[in-house]
Design goal:
Chain lengths: 281, 322
Amino acid sequence: MIALFIDFARRFARNRAALVGLFLVLVVIGVAIAAPWWFPRNPLRIVGRPEIWPFVSPRYPLGTDSLGRDIAAMTAYGARTTLLIGLCASLTATIIGITVGATAAYVGGWVDELLMRLTELFQTIPNLIFVLTIVSILGQKIEYVTIAVGVVTWTPIARLTRAEFMSLRDREFVQACRAMGMGSLRIMFGEILPNALPPVIVLSSLVIAGAVLFESAVAFLGLGDPNVTSWGQLIGDGRTLIRSSWYICAVPGLAIMLTVLALNLVGDGLNDALNPKLRDR
Amino acid sequence: MRRIIIRRLVQIIPLIFAVIVMNFVLIHLAPGSLFDVMTSEQQITDPAMLDQLRHTYGVDQPVTVQLAKYIWSVMRLDLGYSYRQNAPVFDVIMQQLPATLILMLAAIGIALLVGVTAGVMASIKVNTIWDNLISLGAVFFFAAPSFWLGIMMTVMFAVKLGWFPVGGMRTIGVDESAIGAVLDVMHHLVLPATALGLFYAATFARVMRASMLEVARLDFVRTARAKGLSGGRVVLAHVMRNAMLPIVTLLGLQLGTMLGGSVVIEAVFSWPGIGSLLFDSVMSRNFPMVLGVLILGSLLVAVCNATVDLLYLRLDPRIKAR
């Protein structure tokens, strides 16, 4: 097991960009965890004069926004929201995707047909419009945003899982399990799934990046949870001041971009490490 | 050929049907009924009036009847009435749709132009500094949220340099000839279309590069070279044409995302399309409008997907043979 992990780590480390990405992701996670110690008081609290530019005041290294709130504190707390929503949404998408894809491939027949039509349906619906609809109907809560983003991003995972299951379900080891009298559920999730998982994990890591972008768009439009700081919301708040203080938009935007960039790089690295056959393509 | 087209179009019907049913479920998931929201939005308190509305909307009937009624009315393109605009929902959406279509087409155009060019460049100069620069650019634009790009571009090109207008679609109060109006719209279109298109350009560049390298290894390319065709002609007429197929597939798959992306971009640039309409309706809890946009948006994507599939048929005759 440890030898396997070392092998995995070595292959991951061969991709320089992935290491940079991993470093950035760790930094963002570190900031997210450290935020309450670093800025012990409520980040939405007004601390000083409004519209102080970055690098001007040593007390507010990233400046203050239109209300005089500390941008550094809000960005740090925003990392928590962004990562939390990204992870939970990706987890939701992965669970839905694996369930749908595995069932479709393993059961086959009309179930497969029906589930694939359902996948097609969710691919057709313009996803951001769907997220906005759900959030506007159910309410502006962080849970609803997470679920909504998960619900629109599971389709690629379902398709991939289905393809993997298709190629695995008639292999000898599965037939052996069936001959032993193992139940369908146990074969699906105990035997086939572990073999199908590596490419699915890669895709779910990329879904996190997509989820972060979705969340920021929803929050930017002012439909996120108003009681939670998030990067998208900061950009949305700063938008009205682009003539005088464009840095209010620039700082959280850079944070989003670097996080998504890092997550994508890590996803590519995982791809190299988990699917070595595909690397040279 | 006609049979294929008809078969592909028939496939859309169950899809739209499913969207309608899902809409219905969403309405019933809402806390309090949609009816409550509608009446409170219009501030109707008269009990007699409430009873009458309840009857008109069929709220007093069983769920199955309501569903059947809902499906029937949507099929007649009756998506409800919007008191906010004082017009039927369908008419309002149709009025705003052209602006969104223009924006999306322009964004697709920019994405294809920039993405394909960059991908071809990178594949010709593979593993050089150019290749690396293009890949780096692609990675960045792939990660930047489009609305943020839009805002930063506004700061740069509209506020600081003053080359382009900050938002809107037409210059207010200028009455011009037809050509002048077209130019005016195009002038307003540059920033939003670029902001929306660059993300897709990044995707296309990455896919195009990989696909060009893949196709360049095939036998027919060697044959073309052996025939004595010039390097440029081989790349443009033989490799690129075949390498474009994955791009067409990708374009079809991303139309839905693009329509979603245009909602945000329209909000940034106050572009008067269905995105702005949706945003406004979500904010004012105008549910008939929100659901109408969802249905017509899905229909639009479904039709575009079918078109892309048929386009594929033309680009790759091998598919028709099967």
